[in-house]
Design brief:
The chain is mainly alpha-helical.
């Protein structure tokens, strides 16, 4: 059988591997490069024991906060949709102990099968993905939440899961970096058998294995390669001067130069205050807060190709976790501050090189001087050759923004490609808002553009 797998993330590639092993012909399709989506930015935990279903009796107490809190991880857009309300009622009916027990049992069985399959694949293919059986410690600062976790622990232990409840002192013994946070810890759940991998390296390894198994050693260049080769020489020079490995960074983002530029601009802006914030954390003895900042710095810098800074952050984070046994973390923190300032200067140069060149006044989507004049005076309808197409695109973008749909990023990029001269600087603010996922003000700006188009 010839099977088509949509998506070249961890799940898609693992599925393709299993199908290939079963003798099927497989084609994997992805709009970007392997692992460039969710898998590339994933926490990379192989978490086989944390399977508590969301449909659980405890959800009743959490429901108001989940539905109403602005920072809730649950986003539910209620609509006059009979299927949506029917699903909601079925979900609430499932929030009972008997159903939760049944689901937990099934998920643990699935996790056991998944672990066995992964271990077998690792043994057969020897994938270089930084696999580590590092264990997992989940800490609780709320006594009620810790009590609920202990109840789930007892349930899962009866089903064969090996986990233990830990006191605050025992949590610190497992992870010394928590020492300054110990007073806030009510307890923790520790699972020694949990593992971790680098999910991007896992995807890369699976691609290499699939190429070998299928004999497809040379695949067509993807969007990232096209985007990278199309960049001006000045951008590559600025990247080299800044110590940025641009090509792999773009590959991780599917070749989307605009998305990379927006992420880089935000990162560069955050670097300005970071040395002072780290020094303040250390002065206050809050090493846990400093460790969190270092971990974030390491991850974002590595994603954007600022690898030297990522390595320095990782080294300082390691020294901080060691509690000064290997070296004085404060000295390392001061050196990191100098590295951050130097990196920020280089990134500013790269950002300037990545800015699109200003268009000559006579270049428009329309025909002749009239269209150019319309652009200069702000009459959007007269500046484009196909106002209907632009209106349709903006309306689609409005719908996506109203639904907080991440597809708005791609739709906006498409509008920029289709109407570059006419839209020009009009999209700068909208571009920044969408990149920052500020969808409400972005929607307002989109509606302003529609009103201008219709005026």
């Amino acid at each position: 059988m010839h099977v088509c797998v949509l998506g070249a993330g961890v799940v898609g590639l693992a599925t393709a591997y299993a199908l290939t092993q079963a003798g099927h012909q497989v084609t994997v399709i992805d709009r970007a490069t392997p692992g460039a989506g969710t898998s590339g930015g994933n926490g990379a935990q192989l978490s086989y024991s944390y399977v508590q279903p969301l449909a659980d009796p405890s959800i009743w107490r959490q429901l108001p906060k989940l539905l109403l809190a602005p920072d809730s991880p649950l986003k539910l857009r209620l609509q006059a949709d009979a299927q949506q309300w029917a699903w909601g009622l079925r979900f609430m009916q499932a929030c009972k102990a008997s159903t939760s027990l049944q689901t937990t049992t099934q998920l643990l069985a699935l996790a056991t099968t998944s672990r066995a399959a992964f271990d077998q694949m690792m043994q057969a293919e020897q994938l270089a993905c930084d696999f580590a059986a590092s264990g997992k410690l989940v800490i609780y600062s709320d006594a009620q939440a810790f009590g609920a976790a202990q109840k789930q622990l007892v349930l899962q232990q009866a089903l064969g899961s090996v986990q233990t409840a830990q006191t605050a002192m025992e949590c610190v013994a497992i992870e010394p970096a928590l020492q300054h946070y110990q007073a806030h810890i009510q307890g923790g759940i520790y699972t020694a058998s949990e593992c971790a991998v680098d999910s991007q390296k896992l995807c890369d390894g699976l691609v290499a294995v699939l190429r070998r198994l299928t004999g497809r050693h040379h695949l067509p260049a993807g969007a990232a390669a096209v985007a990278d080769s199309a960049l001006p020489a000045a951008v590559h020079a600025a990247a080299a001067a800044a110590g940025v490995e641009l090509a792999p960074a773009l590959a991780r983002l599917g070749g989307k130069v605009g998305v990379y530029r927006r992420m880089l601009a935000r990162f560069e802006g955050e670097l300005a205050d970071l040395p002072a914030e780290l020094q303040a954390d250390m002065a206050q003895g809050d090493e846990l807060a400093a460790a969190r900042r270092l971990h974030t710095l390491r991850g974002v810098a590595a994603t954007l190709g600022v690898n030297d800074l990522a390595a320095r952050a990782a080294q300082t984070e390691k020294q901080l976790a060691a509690g000064g046994k290997a070296a004085d973390p404060r000295q390392s923190m001061a050196e990191l501050g100098d590295a951050i300032s130097a990196a920020a200067r280089g990134l500013r140069g790269l950002l300037r090189a990545l800015l699109p060149a200003p268009l000559p006044a006579q270049q428009t989507d329309g025909d002749g001087p009239a269209a150019a004049a319309a652009t200069a005076t702000g009459a959007l309808a007269g500046a484009v050759s196909d106002p209907a197409a632009l209106r349709s695109g903006l309306k689609t973008l409005s719908d996506l923004l109203r639904q907080s749909d991440m597809a708005a990023l791609d739709t906006l990029a498409g509008l920029q490609r289709q109407h570059p001269q006419a839209l020009g600087g009009r999209l700068v603010q909208l571009d920044e808002l969408v990149a920052g996922l500020d969808f409400v003000p972005a929607l307002a700006r989109c509606r302003e553009l529609l009103a201008e188009l219709d005026s």
